[in-house]
Each structure stands twice: as C-alpha cells, then as structure tokens.
Amino acid sequence: MSPLPNLANGERPHKVTFQNPGEPVPDGQGGYTEGWTDLDPPSMFVQIRPASVADLERVASGTVTSSATHLVTGPFHPGVTTKTRVTFTDRSGRARELAVAGIVNPEERNIEMILLCEESVE
C-alpha cells in the first residue's frame, strides 16, 4: 500500500519545473560555473505541501534524509534525483526553489513519486 493515496489530477495544482545540474562552464577566471538543465519533460503538475513530522515518519521511515520542509507528490519522473531542483511560482507570484533531499517511489511501481524537499531560502 502507498504511504500516501494516489492523487487525481485536480489535486495537483502546482506546475513545477525539474532541473539537474548542467555541465561546468569555464568562468574566465580559472574556475567553473555550473548552470541548470531542464529534464525531459521539464514540467508537470504536482501537489506541494508543508511536511509535518507525522508525514516524514510515514513517508521516510527507514530512509536517511536531511530535514525536509515540503512534500512534492506527482507522476513518476525517472530523471529526478537528489541533485534535482524543483522550481515554481507560488500563488502570490513569488519564485520558489526546492532541493530534492529524498525520493519515495511507492511500491517501486514507477507510477508516482513523493519528493522530500528543502526550500532554498536566500
């Protein structure tokens, strides 16, 4: 049984973009700059909600993760890893960025994924 119920499309109101680190590019000063590359497909609709202690105990039990601030639930994407970042614009028009700290693939069926994410605060 899945740790969280499957969600209908209407329960996934957030359009997000998934990106992985790109190839290092010389910065002209002897170092490198690393950009981000969109995954294929880059965007999908997901549910984003704050992670409670109970959620983390249920979803991530037996998993090594750092502290998560949000749970992102959506269709499985094979390119998402713990190096992936999730970007989206919230309802107030503010750009947000989440770093994937852990991935749950319920029943290893590659249908749905639950991402344990940390918000990047600048």
SSE order? EEHEEEE
Rg (CA only): 15 Å
Strand content: over 45%
Taking pLDDT < 50 over at least 5 consecutive residues as the criterion, the unreliable ranges are 1-5
Determine the structural class based on helices, strands and strand pairing: mainly beta
Mean pLDDT: 84
How many helix segments?
1
What order do the strands of the largest sheet run in, or round the barrel if closed? 1-2-3-6-5-4
Shape: globular
Residues in helices, as a percent range: under 10%
Query: How many strands?
Result: 6
Distance between the termini: 38 Å
Reported for the largest beta sheet, the result is: 6 strands, antiparallel, barrel
Structure description:
The chain has 122 residues and is mainly beta. It has a domain at 33-66 and 81-122. 6% of the residues lie in helices and 50% in strands. It is built from one helix and six strands; from the N terminus they run ββαββββ. It has one helix spanning 53-59; strands spanning 14-26, 32-50, 70-75, 85-89, 95-104, 112-119. It has a six-stranded antiparallel β-barrel. It is globular. 17% of the residues are buried. The model is unreliable at 1-5 (pLDDT under 50).
